[in-house]
Amino acid sequence: MIFCRLLSCLLLVGRSTAAKNAEILALRHEVAVLRRQVQRPRLSWADRAVLTALAKHLPPVLRRHRLVTPSTLLIWHRRLVRWKWRQTAIRSGRPPLPQETVALIQRLGTENPTWGYVRNQGELRRLGNRVAAATIRRVLLRSGLPPAPQRASQQTWRTFLHTQAHTLLACDFMHVDTVFLKRLYVFFVMEIATRRVHVLSVTAHPTGAWITQPARNLLMDLDDRAGRFRFLIRDRDSKFTATFNAVFAGNGTTLIPTPPQNPRSNAFAERWIRTARTECTDRLLITGERHLRTVLDQYAEHYNAGRAHRGLDLRAPDDDPNVIPLPATTVRRRQVLGGLLNEYHPTPPRPPYRSQETPSSAA
């Protein structure tokens, strides 16, 4: 900026006095116009330095009518003095909590909505953190978490799904258009905890009676495990009649209708529909009900036993989570649906071949 100002001064030397006076008058008028529009301009430190240096060469009368007056220059000087002699403020009181402790308090408050401040204090002490209950209250309120009674009453649908996943079933309908432009409907049920899918029935004319009998068959197939499921999530379709509700009510299962126009309330079933379409039905030409039932039976078997799931630590629903497979020397591929899907299974290494010793060699 200094170089540009010096260069402009050198250029002004060659100009006539009349031109300079005309430019000064034009600049004064422009400044007057801008002052009517801008109440308080913002100046940088470079602008302040240039105006301070040029103000020394102006007559005292002209200094009072500038954008920067002598009083403003004195204010800038006092600010510089304060900035030079300022000291870092020393905060009084207790030192702040470490970020790890704050994150742990927020985690305990979020994951345990029924825990009060003293209960969180006791849990933190067991984990080796001595924090006062008032501090825990302040941290939780700052994070937007109300006291325990309010947090317990504000249970969201997502929290309900996570806490009750092992007792939840979800059902829904899926439609597939055949090669002859005929629409078929598929009724399926999913176990939320294990993501296991049961394809119950396929038809072109869905009715209330059509889904009632497959519901009875499902409870018979579940046998002893049927008593574990306390809730069934379904939408508000008219095909879910009172007879269908009575089948699960006899098993002690409570039916929970999803809110209107809220597919996220049945997110697990909706996700399976998208997965089945992406991996299976959208890549095949379906000819009829029998063909679709065969395809979906094979895909459900692959989904339950041969497909890794993100929500299950990259395991299949039928995999034993306590078994760690040993490394295999040979990996074999099994094609599903004519090569549309692939499953890979390890083959354990064969034991080394031992030749049988003859009696004469042993002797």
TrEMBL record:
Segments forming domain Integrase catalytic: 145-325
Organism: Streptomyces asiaticus subsp. ignotus
Coiled coil location: none
PROSITE patterns listed in its UniProt record: INTEGRASE
Gene3D superfamilies noted in UniProt: Ribonuclease H-like superfamily/Ribonuclease H
A Pfam family matched in the record: rve_3
InterPro entries recorded: Integrase_cat-core, RNaseH-like_sf, RNaseH_sf
Protein name: Integrase core domain-containing protein
Region annotated Disordered, chain positions: 340-363
